[in-house]
């Protein structure tokens, strides 16, 4: 029997993030292949949402429905238990991704060697930075023509605002791609384009070994030596503690499609990536090794099939051992709940589990009892904090289109907001309800679900708005004065917090300079 400490130390819970098309799905699949969780490439459909379906959200939801099973992919790799938390590929579901990032201990970022850092990557990195999440970067598609690796490193550093340190180095690129030198373990892997097979390794003593020349030819070997001496000159030694603090990102190069450079990444990842660490609750810091179970709901996945109107609440275990049928306290309501059919996600299968450890994700079938950010404990009044909600980017007034069904509409809106589908604000000036989302698709999703799940009809009315941001101040008088001046543009969120509705970037900038005592926040927390 292993101890709680041993179970914690062998766990690696992380997410792979990227701009769509950089290779997240392919990399996920190859990691599963190494973990023996699948046996053939192409088996994972993951949360990938095909480009062709972007305008057809029902199709997207269908794919999302299928992807419940791949929301969390657990497998064993050597002595390690790995949990990969999948994130939706479609940017309209970015809010889901932000929340998933609150449940991971580290992140792997995939970047396309030809495209470098793209918009979505930049944004997701911001979230990682807010929480000092350790990141490893995988530069993908080296089998295709791309940019100079040094240029890519500079761009990563400048665009992602993090120090980088290559731990592997490519020899050639595109048609001339020969392989990757593993700086971390000092060995050379030769590139053989093959989707199923791992790489061929050349045993060498160090970078001056003639076996490198024999394997790739003199000119590539010389180039490699030059590059490596430049790297040693420019980048300090890899400092694992800086990586763990989220201040330094090791970089690997490879080709996920060709299963190349992936094993190096995985082997280094399991060694250096953090196991579950203490988490700050509002009341105190909670250590994963504490015997009493605690955890929080970071995601609720609704089943879109009207015949099975259930949800799954995803709980991240933060401390102690989770046990099936044990009574746990839902802090928000004070209720004691028992879970008869919690599921774990191993090797792409969802199955009932009897126990789970910190770092694991448990799926709990739910019919509307849970809210994003809910904390569960063995009895202690703890509130896990830091489930950020970001300033939405799109806004509409929501109106009742069927006066006979206003109760249903109200209930539907409340429940969908609890699930974290979108954010609700009440305009203080006219009392109207405003729904804020990060993507256009959510409006369609909400309208459809209100009708099919609650029998309520809604109508959208466009409003012109640039950004909603939370405002507060240490000076009570200043905030009162601000609210008075801007009373036409003030709203409250569901927690009753003040929100300023700026209708243009100019208005926001002016407000920031006119009211220096007011703090404008672009991310909030759900459960303060
Ligand atoms: P995503 O989840 O980040 O959106 O990306 P995904 O893995 O689906 O990869 C996007 C496309 O890039 C896929 O091609 C995939 O085959 C390709 N790809 C991934 N890794 C590599 C690589 O190392 N080298 C090369 N050359 N291509 C790579 P697709 O044509 O869009 O999809 P599919 O029809 O192959 O599924």
Q: Strands, helices and their partners?
A:
Blueprint: H1 4-9, E1 11-18, H2 24-34, H3 57-66, E2 72-77, E3 80-85, H4 94-100, E4 106-112, H5 119-130, E5 135-140, H6 149-160, E6 163-166, E7 168-171, E8 179-182, E9 187-190, E10 200-202, H7 210-216, H8 218-234, H9 240-244, E11 248-253, H10 262-272, E12 279-280, E13 285-286, E14 294-302, E15 311-319, E16 322-323, E17 327-330, E18 335-338, E19 343-346, E20 349-352, E21 355-356, E22 361-366, E23 375-377, E24 388-390, E25 394-400, H11 406-418, E26 423-427, E27 433-437, H12 441-454, E28 458-462, E29 467-472, H13 476-485, E30 490-492, E31 498-502, H14 505-514, E32 519-521, E33 523-525
Parallel strand pairs: 1-3, 1-4, 4-5, 5-11, 6-11
Antiparallel strand pairs: 2-3, 7-8, 8-9, 9-10, 12-13, 14-15, 14-23, 15-22, 16-21, 17-18, 17-23, 19-20, 24-33, 25-27, 25-28, 26-27, 26-30, 29-31, 29-32, 30-31
The protein binds guanosine-5',3'-tetraphosphate.
Guanosine-5',3'-tetraphosphate (G4P) binds next to helix 2.
Features:
binds guanosine-5',3'-tetraphosphate, 528 residues, 8-stranded antiparallel β-sheet, 7-stranded mixed β-sheet, alpha+beta, globular
């Amino acid at each position: 029997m292993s101890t709680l400490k041993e179970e914690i130390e062998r766990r690696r819970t992380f997410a792979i993030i990227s701009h769509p098309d950089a290779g997240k799905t392919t990399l996920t699949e190859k990691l599963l292949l190494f973990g023996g969780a699948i046996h053939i490439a192409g088996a994972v459909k993951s949360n990938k949402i095909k480009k062709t379906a972007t305008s057809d959200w029902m199709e997207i939801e269908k794919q999302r429905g299928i992807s419940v099973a791949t929301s969390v992919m657990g497998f064993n790799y050597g002595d390690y238990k790995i949990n990969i938390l999948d994130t939706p590929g479609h940017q309209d579901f970015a809010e889901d991704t932000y929340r998933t990032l609150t449940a991971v201990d580290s992140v792997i970022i995939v970047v396309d060697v030809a495209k470098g850092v793209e918009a979505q990557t930049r944004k997701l990195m911001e979230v990682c930075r807010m929480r000092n999440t350790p990141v490893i970067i995988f530069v993908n598609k080296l089998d295709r023509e791309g940019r100079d690796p040094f240029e890519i490193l500079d761009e990563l550093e400048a665009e992602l605002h993090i120090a980088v340190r290559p731990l592997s180095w490519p020899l050639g690129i595109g048609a001339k791609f020969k392989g990757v030198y593993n700086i971390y373990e000092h060995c050379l892997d030769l590139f053989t384009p093959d989707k199923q097979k791992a790489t061929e390794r050349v045993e060498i003593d160090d970078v001056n070994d003639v076996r490198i020349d024999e394997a790739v030819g003199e000119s590539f070997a010389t180039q490699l030596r030059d590059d490596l001496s430049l790297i040693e000159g420019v980048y300090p030694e890899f400092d694992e503690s800086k990586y763990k603090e989220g201040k330094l990102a090791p970089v690997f190069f490879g080709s996920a499609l060709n299963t190349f450079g992936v094993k190096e990444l995985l082997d280094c990842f399991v060694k250096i990536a953090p196991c579950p660490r203490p988490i700050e609750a509002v009341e105190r810091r909670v250590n994963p090794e504490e015997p009493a179970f605690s955890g929080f709901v970071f995601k609720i996945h609704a089943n879109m099939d009207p015949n099975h109107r259930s949800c799954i609440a995803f709980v991240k275990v933060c401390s102690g051992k989770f046990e099936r049928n044990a009574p746990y306290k839902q802090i928000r309501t004070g209720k004691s709940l028992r879970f008869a059919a919690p599921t774990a996600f191993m090797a792409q299968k969802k199955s009932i589990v009897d126990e789970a450890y910190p770092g694991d994700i448990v799926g709990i079938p739910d019919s509307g009892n849970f809210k994003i950010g809910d904390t569960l404990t063995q009895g202690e009044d703890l509130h896990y904090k830091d489930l950020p909600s970001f300033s939405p980017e799109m806004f509409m007034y929501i109106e009742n289109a069927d006066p006979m069904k206003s109760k249903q509409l109200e209930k539907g809106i409340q429940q969908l907001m609890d699930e974290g589908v979108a954010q609700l604000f009440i305009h203080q000036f006219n009392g109207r309800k405003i729904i804020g989302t990060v993507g256009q698709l959510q409006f369609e999703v909400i309208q459809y679900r209100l009708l099919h799940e609650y029998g309520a009809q809604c109508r959208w009315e466009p409003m012109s708005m640039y950004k909603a941001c939370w405002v507060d101040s240490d000076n009570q008088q200043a905030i009162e004065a601000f609210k008075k001046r801007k009373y036409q543009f003030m709203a409250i969120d569901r927690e009753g917090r003040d929100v300023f509705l700026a209708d243009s970037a100019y208005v926001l900038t002016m407000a920031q300079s006119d009211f220096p005592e007011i703090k404008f926040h672009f991310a909030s927390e759900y459960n303060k």
